[in-house]
Amino acid sequence: MSIVEEIKESLAALSIPEKAAFFPKFFKTGKGEYGEGDLFLGVTVPDQRSVAKAYYSEISLTDLSKLLSSAYHEHRSTALFMLIAKFEKTKNDEVKTEIIEFYLNHLKYINNWDLVDSSCYKILGRYCFENQKEELLRKLSTSEEMWHKRIAVVGTMHYVKKGLFDLTKEFVTQNLNHPHDLMHKANGWLLREMGQKNETELIAYLNQYYKQMPRTCLRYAIEKLDEDLRQDYLKGRI
User: Fold this and answer.
1) pTM
2) CA gap 126, 235 in Å, rounded
């Protein structure tokens, strides 16, 4: 049995029927929805992480590609958990570059918000930060694909954690009025994280842009602010 088939069998054994029934609704897989056509086994994230931990060191990128290109969401998610582990464990710069190339070459399979959010800043965002490769994120931010745009802005989380906010503000502003609420949520989330590191930076940005923001973005961005200040923004009193 190949390692890919072994991993698939390990995940299948962890399937929970109730989860398999719930996940398609939660991840919006209906016709015309953002996750249209995605298939689910019903495996929880902790169980996926356990499988990833058991196999990441022995699976090759060639076999990882087979798993990441699967129609099943949990196969793709587990593949990404393994890719993160490979990236975080290696000290070899050539291997890191190879993993980044692999990630960028498989973007079409990183096609739901959880797949984006769990992987992009830990792999691509960190790599761009450590190697001054912001152009990789900028290219994605200007893509027509919503998932690429979300990868770009969430990818700046690594910068935010390091106290650097310019790239986050650049991408949020660039896609501030994107038509999909998944971008509004991502933008607001990253602004909120920026505010957690430096509230002054968040307030300065909000004072310039909050009246232009979609309501969802604004609500996410101001979630951790003082309640009186939150109400001032929500009611347009600033």
Assistant:
1) 0.96
2) 37
* Close Cβ partners of 215 (under 8 Å, ≥ 6 residues apart): none
3-state secondary structure of 104: helix
Give CA–CA dist 146/91, Å, rounded. 32
Closest CA to 16 of 45, 52, 51: 45
CB count in 10 Å sphere of residue 168:
24
Tokens of 202: 């968040």
CA dist., res. 192 & res. 154, Å (int): 12
Which residue bears the tokens 């027509």? 144
- What are the tens digits of pLDDT across the range 125-167? 999 999 999 999 999 999 999 999 999 999 999 999 999 999 9
